[in-house]
Design the sequence.
């Protein structure tokens, strides 16, 4: 893979990024990209505020487990696979010792899906008001489209 | 002149907006802006050497846009060679670029 | 700080057991409840959100699933009344057999290339 340099002039140092995510995992790649990018931004001491909207409220369902794969497929799938909530939890913990990530789960979306009371510890159940405050306070807003 | 980061995460060869994302990049360049197009997820499918969409992306590069395809997404899809004018890149580059600051980021 | 926010809709959602597309809901809340200057761009099939005559209703086992007389165009009107700018893309209207006369009053029609000007004018862009 060729080496690439970041483009152009260094206009300003970004301190805060808001990410709006509306898709759940297990069918979509977007949450993976968001978590990968969040890790990189936190490494650069950039605060990350994620607003989990719609199906994304299931990403922080605390009842996710590493389930066993069907025996007949283990040869090609392995014994089990990881679940996404584990990585959200780990990224939230990174913030204890550096740039922090806040993860707000939309209360209305969580109630609709029955996951309001099933959130992992670091997920803050909040409102759409939090979404717009994240947007207003951010140096950059990254909104991931729902349909891909 | 402003600095724009356009992220293409959708399959430009399939999605109805496959023509719109290049249009946005081209028009922003025509207005004299600094434009980076960063392809990720299924967005890299269009970047494969030999693809019809790769020629469109090459055209954007000719017009002064920087066009990158993310390495992890490429490896996942077996994209080993990119169309002319497109370079491999990675999330460190994307994060560095965001850290340095764009005037606007549009994620498609 | 983002002050001018462009919100882009591309694919319409109807009758999803939400009173209206939740992204439209969230955007309207941003328009009415925040100091942000929020503009809406309707493109692709989401241009239908601006069509004036919409009756969104369905019954299952005789029960209406829409609790209120809500429709996307009603939300579009609401946002316009609260100062938002709503634009639709001319080419995408025409592709779907629509003309500006079919739209809610106050909605602006722009050419596809002009949408780049609109992007240029905003601090942040949200594509739902």
Sequence:
């Amino acid at each position: 893979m060729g080496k690439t340099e970041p483009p152009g002039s260094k206009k300003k140092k970004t301190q805060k990024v808001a990410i709006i995510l509306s898709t759940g995992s297990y069918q979509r790649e977007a949450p993976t990209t968001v978590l990968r990018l969040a890790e990189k931004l936190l490494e650069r001491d950039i605060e990350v505020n994620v607003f989990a909207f719609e199906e994304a409220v299931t990403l922080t369902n605390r009842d996710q487990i590493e389930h066993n794969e069907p025996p007949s497929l283990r040869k090609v799938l392995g014994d089990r696979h990881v679940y996404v909530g584990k990585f959200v939890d780990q990224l939230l913990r990174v913030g204890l010792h550096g740039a922090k990530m806040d993860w707000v789960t939309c209360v209305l979306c969580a109630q609709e899906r029955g996951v309001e009371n099933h959130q992992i510890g670091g997920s803050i159940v909040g409102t759409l008001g939090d979404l717009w405050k994240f947007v207003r306070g951010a140096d950059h807003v990254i909104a991931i489209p729902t349909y891909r | 002149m402003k600095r724009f980061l356009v992220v293409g995460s959708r399959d430009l060869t399939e999605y109805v907006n496959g023509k719109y994302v290049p249009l946005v990049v081209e028009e922003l360049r025509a207005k004299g802006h600094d434009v980076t197009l960063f392809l990720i997820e299924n967005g890299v499918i269009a970047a494969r050497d030999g693809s019809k969409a790769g020629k469109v992306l090459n055209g954007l590069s000719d017009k002064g846009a920087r066009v990158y395809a993310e390495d992890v997404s490429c490896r996942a899809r077996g994209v080993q060679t990119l169309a002319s004018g497109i370079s491999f890149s990675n999330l460190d580059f994307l994060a560095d670029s965001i850290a340095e600051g764009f005037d606007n980021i549009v994620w498609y | 700080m983002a002050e001018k926010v462009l919100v882009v809709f591309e694919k319409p959602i109807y009758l999803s057991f939400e009173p209206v597309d939740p992204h439209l809901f969230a955007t309207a809340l941003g328009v009415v409840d925040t100091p942000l200057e929020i503009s809406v761009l309707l493109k692709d099939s989401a241009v239908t959100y601006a069509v004036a005559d919409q009756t969104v209703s369905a019954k299952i086992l005789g029960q209406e699933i829409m609790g209120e007389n809500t429709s996307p165009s009603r939300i579009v009107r609401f946002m316009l009344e609260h100062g938002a700018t709503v634009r639709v893309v001319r080419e995408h209207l025409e592709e779907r057999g629509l003309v500006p006369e079919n739209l809610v009053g106050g909605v602006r029609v722009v050419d596809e290339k002009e949408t780049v000007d609109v992007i240029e004018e905003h601090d942040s862009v949200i594509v739902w």
In short: The domain at 4-127 of chain C is CATH 3.40.1260.10 (Hypothetical Protein Ychn; Chain: A,). Chain C has one domain: 4-127. The radius of gyration of chain C is 15 Å. Chain C has a mean pLDDT of 92.
